[in-house]
Every structure is written in C-alpha cells, then in structure tokens.
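Task card 7
Instruction: Convert sequence to structure tokens.
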Amino acid sequence: MLESLVFSLAALFSVLNPLNITAYFLSLSEGLTDERKKNLAVRASILAALIASFAALVGGPFLEFMGVRISSFRIAGGIILLIFGIQTCTGRPSAGKNGSGNATVLLASPLMAGPGTISMSILLASQVGIYTTLAAIAIVVLLALTFMLSATRIKRVVGEDGMRVILRVLGLVVVAVAIQFIIVGFGTP
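Output:
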C-alpha cells in the first residue's frame, strides 16, 4: 500500500508539478489583492482535485463509452498546452489581469489538472486502485495549494525579473511537454 502511494505521488507530482504551478499562479494573480489571490488558489485547487478525482473514478469507462482513445485525449490536451506554453514564452497578457474567473479555470485546467494529470489519474486508478489514487491526488493538490499560498514570499526571494525568466523558461518546458503529449498520442494505438 505505501509503495503504491509513493509511486502514485511521484507520478502525479511529475505531471502536476506544484513548483511550476507557483510561477504560473504568480503570473495569473498579478494585480489581485491578497484575499483574491488566496481565493484563486483555493478555488483552482478544489477544481483541479475534482477534475482529477472524476477522471480517476470514471475517466476510463467514460472515454471508452464515448469512443475516445486516451491517445486522442493526449493529442487534444497537448494542443491546448502548446497554445498556453507559446503564450507564456512570448509574454502575452495572462487571464488574471482582467479578472480571476478565467484565471481559476486556466490554473485548474489545463495547468494543474491538464491532460497529464487526467491521463495519469485514469492510469493510476486502473494500476494501483482508486483509493490510493484519490489519496495521491489530494496530497499533491494540497502541496500545490501550499506553494501557491507561499508564492509571494517565493517571489520576494527570486525577484520580479527572476520570476519573469522562470515563467518564460517554464513556458518553454510546457511547450516541450505539450509536444511530447502530441507525439505519444500519435504513437499510441
């Protein structure tokens, strides 16, 4: 049981990556009050946990019922991530500057509960069981929430320019991950 939980945590951490989420959270919450930042982090975390949990519970049967292969899902999610990654690399304005509604959705999915997290949740549920998968989802999302709530302190240490550089580099990483999802999607029957 513990071995399965550690495996699930490592797998989900690699695709949800709370460290990357922190940089995106700072960008998407720019200009918001501390209270609105906290609300954004909590709402996005709850939404991401619900999406990942739903995927773990009914994702496999639902995709099968709809006639959608996981490979098609990876390609579609990869395209969405690709667009977001390109916008991040080029420094286009983020959703958070005009209101936190779009930022909540963007942060929750595709950033936290994107194609990687959803696919991994579906695969883990079939491999290690639903309870272990749900526990891992809860732990990783709580870790991401903790990082987001500490984001301002992290930004003070790294600085404004440092955060911009980190965000642009992470945008490039998101582009690479998106392309990998697309490649894997085309290579999977």
